[in-house]
């Protein structure tokens, strides 16, 4: 890994930014907290108070993966180097995962991609539910031959790879980007909102929708963890934002977390808490996209071990449709309940809206672009969902229309 002195020898005078300093921290957007580590800082998408209220390993992994987190600065630099310490996930018996991608934007336009090799390794055995952590070393990402002019730089961190930020080196000084007057969109959802199998961090559906809508994204999509947790609701309440959306349902079903009797009051409580901090902001409730395995079959979802033995990752529903009479939940039941709740609350909350997730991805889409593992959209589907969300929600008649 190049050191600051190495860079100066090769390229002349360089500026080094450490993210443990206030100056470095102000260049990070999309994270709610930066935790100092032995190498630099670890971006978190849930604050420490929320993390302390749940010891779930899945949540810890999801919220530390920096979906939507990016470094944003203004500079004349023609060469930029970023040192990071990634954590690579390896699933026993499954094909190796590619290294996480970093996206570079210059003045809002795609200008490069790269990866950082090495780092920590987390080996997960899905058949036993165990994981082994092996420590590693930081690596360096380098972008060169950038325009020699003042410009806005964004480096989006990998949406699916826990990433400690160590240092930024540039061959010209950096500073914060001036306020462009863009509204802040705060979104919460499941692994689909987190990014699942999107091609890169700027092509997750929320990132695409934010770009098309001209807003600043804070993405609290948490893989496997959109479970109506009170600490998540309080995080949404306490995070400054102009626009708020919550995508509810798939994790409730595939975790087999609750029954209909508990679901309705939990949704009300979740929305009540958000409204404490955002009483008048447009608040959009989005129901699940189509997922055939859970449309009429309850959870829990389970790994298809037969498929895994052939190197394929696939999920299956293990519930019994006959259990609907006992209050078990399916996506069909959840959509009906969410639509009912929003309609009732909208009578006294004129800024509350509902969007059926099948408008973003429905039966015709599944026939054309099936879900590869029966739960998560692929890269093409992320693009379709993001474009449709922008068309329906940021359009003049949508919940997030500029006129509102």
**Largest β sheet strand count, sense and barrel closure:** 6 strands, mixed
Structural class: alpha+beta
Total helix count? 14
Give the rounded overall mean pLDDT. Answer: 93
Runs in which pLDDT lies below 50 for 5 or more consecutive residues are 1-11
Q: Estimate percent helicity.
A: 25-40%
Distance between the termini: 49 Å
Principal-axis shape: globular
Number of strands: 21
Molecular structure report:
The protein is α+β, with helices and mostly antiparallel strands and 404 residues long. It contains 14 helices and 21 strands. A hairpin with a 4-residue loop joins strand 3 (33-36) and strand 4. The model is unreliable at 1-11 (pLDDT under 50).
What's the arrangement of secondary structure elements?
Elements (H helix, E strand, L loop, with lengths): L3 H8 L3 E4 L3 H4 L2 E2 L3 E4 L4 E4 L3 H4 L5 H8 L5 E6 L4 E12 L10 E5 L2 E6 L5 E6 L4 E5 L4 E5 L7 E6 L6 E8 L3 E2 L8 E6 L1 H4 L10 H9 L2 E6 L8 H9 L4 E5 L2 H5 L5 H18 L5 E4 L5 H4 L5 E3 L1 H5 L5 E3 L13 H16 L5 E4 L7 H6 L10 H16 L10
Parallel strand pairs: 6-9, 15-16, 15-17, 17-18, 18-21
Antiparallel strand pairs: 1-13, 2-5, 3-4, 5-12, 5-14, 6-11, 6-13, 7-8, 7-12, 9-10, 19-20
Helix pairs in contact: 6-14, 7-9, 9-12
Key features?
single chain, 404 residues, alpha+beta, six-stranded mixed beta sheet, six-stranded antiparallel beta sheet, 21 strands, disordered N terminus
At a glance:
With 404 residues, the chain is α+β, with helices and mostly antiparallel strands.
